[in-house]
C-alpha cells in the first residue's frame, strides 16, 4: 500500500509547494502595493504643504496688493507644483480603489498605465528646477521673505521640513515610482492581464526618470557649490550652472615671504585657493581658469612633492603633503585641462576660428625674498631702506633703481607692470622695435613704402597687441633682409603693423593702474621707455655726484635735485 501510494503522496507534496510559492508571491505583491499607496499618501501630503502653506498665502498677499514676492518670482520658485498636486491626488484615489478589489475591471496595472502619460507634467518641473532653487536661494536672503519662510515652516503640515526640502520631493518621486512599479512587475505573472499594462507604464516612467536623474545630479552639484560658497567670507560667487566640484585639500604655496598653507578647490573649469581667517571662514585669494593655466611637475629636489601652477595672472609653486596627493592633483588638473581645451577647440571650430600655433604667455614664478639677498641686476645688497621688488616678466628680485619703469604687456596684464631693466632691454631687442611714434623706419626697410603703410594704418585706426606686433615684425624684418625683390611690399606691411601697435599704446596712454605700489601711471612705447631709462641713469649719476659735494654746498642739494 505504501509503495502504491508513494507517487500520490509525492504529487500532493509538489502541489502543496506550488501553492506556497504562489501565496508568497501574492503576499509580496500586496506588500509592494501597500508601499506604493502609503508612500504616495505621504508624498501628496508634502505637496499639500507646499501649496497650502507657502504658495497660496503668497498668492493671497499678491492679490491683496501687499506682496512678499512678485508674480514672476512666485512662478519661478513653485513652477507647476499645484498641477502636480492635482494629478497625484487623483492618482492616490485610483490606487486605493484598485487595491481594494471592489471593481474587477480596475487594477493597479491599469492605473499605472493610465496615469503614466500624465506624469510627463514632471518634465516641466524638472526643467525649471535649477532656476527654482537659484531664485529661492536669492530671495531667501531678503528679510521679509525670510521671516515668512521661518513662520510657515513651523506649520504641522511641513513636518519640520524647509521649503527647499519640500520642493525637491517631486524630483525624488519619479525614481521612486520606477523602483516600486518595477518591483510590482516582478511580482506579477507574465500571463496576467496586468503585466502588459505595468510594462507599458514603466516605459513612459523610464523616459521621465532619465530627465529626473540628470536634474537630481545637477541639484546635488549645485548644493555642493552652495555649501562651499557659504564657507567663504564676503561676496564670493562660485555657483554656476555649468560648474561642478572635483576636489579640495590643503597645499603649501611658496610665497615671496616663504611657504603658506592655503585651501585649494578644484572645479571642472577653474582652480580657487583661499586661507582661513581668525573666525574660521575662508578668505578668497584667487580664481585661475583652467583654459588659461598649466600644472607641471617641479624638478627642484629641495622641494619634495612640489609642482608648479602657471597662469597669465599668477604663477607659483605648491607643495603637497605626500607624493600620492601631488599625483592626484596633477592628474585631475591635466584631465580637466584637456576637457576644457577640447570644448574651446570645438567652439572655435563652430565659429570658423582657429587658435592653432598660439601659446599662452604665463606670469613667472617669483623668486622668494629669502633666496635673494642681493638685487638680480646690480647685485646691491638689500637693506631696510633698499626694498625688494619683483619683475613681473622674469620673477627676479630687484631693487627700486633697477626697476623704475612700468610697462604694459597685454599678454600678461592690462595694467602697467613693473619690469627690471634687463627685461626692458630684452623686450627692445626681441621685438626689434622700429621706432616710437615720432621716429622713422629701420634701415632694412624702404622708407617711402614704410611711411605709406604707417599712414594707412593710422587713418584706419588699426590696433596690434604686443603678441601680434612682435610676431609680424620679426618675420617682416627677416623677409625684407632675405628678399630684395619684395622690399617695398614688406616695408609697407612693416609700417602698417608699426602704426597699429603705436595706435594701441596711444589709446591706452591715459589708463590708470590701481592697487599695485610697483605700478606707474603712464603707458609708454618701448622706444620711449629706453630713452627714459637712459635719462634716469644719467640723473642717478648726477645725484651721486651731488652726494659727494663738500658740506658747504649741500644746502643747494634739494634745489639741484629738483632741477
Task: Please sum up the structure shown.
By secondary structure, the chain is α+β, with helices and mostly antiparallel strands. The protein is built from 16 helices and 11 strands. The chain is elongated, with a radius of gyration of 37 Å.
Radius of gyration: 37 Å
Mean pLDDT: 76
- Secondary-structure element sequence? HHHHHHHHHEEEEEEEHEEEEHHHHHH
Number of strands: 11
Give the tags.
7-stranded antiparallel sheet; single chain; disordered N terminus; 563 residues; two-stranded antiparallel ribbon
Please, could you describe this protein's structure?
A seven-stranded antiparallel sheet has the order 4-3-2-1-7-6-5. Strands 8-9 form a two-stranded antiparallel ribbon. It is 54% helix and 10% strand. The protein has helices spanning 2-63, 71-78, 81-100, 108-116, 122-139, 143-152, 163-167, 169-186, 193-229, 323-350, 421-431, 447-460, 466-482, 487-507, 526-547, 557-562; strands spanning 245-255, 258-267, 270-276, 282-289, 293-297, 306-311, 316-319, 389-390, 397-398, 406-407, 417-418. Helix 2 (71-78) crosses helix 5 (122-139) and helix 11 (421-431) runs antiparallel to helix 15 (526-547). The chain is α+β, with helices and mostly antiparallel strands. The N and C termini lie far apart (138 Å). The chain contains 16 helices and eleven strands.
